Structure formats: structure tokens, C-alpha cells
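Handover notes (outgoing to incoming on-call)

Open items:
1. Soluble inorganic pyrophosphatase: sequence verified, structure written out, both below. Nothing else pending on this one.
2. Nothing else urgent.
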Amino acid sequence: MAPSQEVTAATKEPSTNGNGTNGTNGTAAAAPKTKTPALNERILSSITRRSVAAHPWHDLEIGPDAPTIFNCVIEIPKGSKIKYELDKKTGLIKVDRVLYSSVVYPHNYGFIPRTLCDDDDPIDVLVIMQEPVVPGCFLRAKAIGLMPMIDQGEADDKIIAVCADDPEYRHFNDIKELPPHRLAEIRRFFEDCESLMPLIRSG
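Soluble inorganic pyrophosphatase C-alpha cells:
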């Protein structure tokens, strides 16, 4: 196929005069310009086509078996000295700070999607299970108790739960069933974090 015919086929313009130019004014036919969509438009379009959760707080379902069994998003893995937290604007997990002293998280820590506490954050949950998990993943949990907490004068209660799919802990139904040392460990962790808050705010 001659070059002039390729231009004609691509642009659907009137046929050329045989020398690669338009028969009217002698100029080559130009292909129409197409607008490149903005990056954000392409990302949103991709998310829509794939039907994936765009934001772990707002878009992830709490689960069909709630409130008995519910989904929760893990921000901080068991044994971590780094406090990760959800960035509300982007939905990504960010580094908030490194904990003071030798305190580490005794179990996986995160939040319950589509919930709201008095501090305008999702409800916090500490999930007892055998192994640490990757920040940003979600798992099925079962609540076994509540640990009332106050943060800067506002209620900041912590749900204590077990992983519903962990064979070692899934049979627990009440916080009183935990070994006394395990419960004392959890309580002491939150007390230590609270006592360190003045250093964090000043520092």
C-alpha cells in the first residue's frame, strides 16, 4: 500500500490525487489529534474496571458475618517498634513514628473498616494470633473483649480480638479465657504507650 493510501485509510479523509497530497489544496492529510487522559483519570478508570477496593477504610466490606466475625485491616505487625498508621487521604499505610523506650506491639494492630470512633478515626483492634502479618493486609477477626482507653480526653477504646482463622486462638470467645500473663501484657503495653505520650508530643 502506498504512503498516501495509508494516510487516507487511517484518517478517513477524501482520497488523494495519487501523489500523496489532497486533491483540493495540495497538502498532506493530517491524522486527528487525540487527547491523552490525565493520570488521575486513568488510575480511577483502571480501579473502576477492576472493581477493587480503592480505600481500605471506606471501601472494604466489614464482612457478611459481622459483628461475630469481621474484617480488619492490619497497620502494625506483631513485634514492631514502628507505629504505622493509615493515611486517611491516600488510603496507604505510612510510618507515623518509632516507639520510645523498648516498647513493641505485642500483637497485630489495626482497624475495622467502615467504623468511626469518637476521635474521628476507625475503631482500633488488637488481633491476637501466632504470627506477624504484613501491614496493609486484612484478615478475619473475632472480638473477645474491650479495653477502655482515654486519649487526650477522648474515648479511644481498643477492641481485643483473635484471628478467626488461627487454629491456636480461634476457639477463644471471651477475654477472660486468655492466660493471665497475656492479658497483663496487653494492658501494660497500652499503659506504657499512654505514659510515653508526653515525650512524643514534646519531642
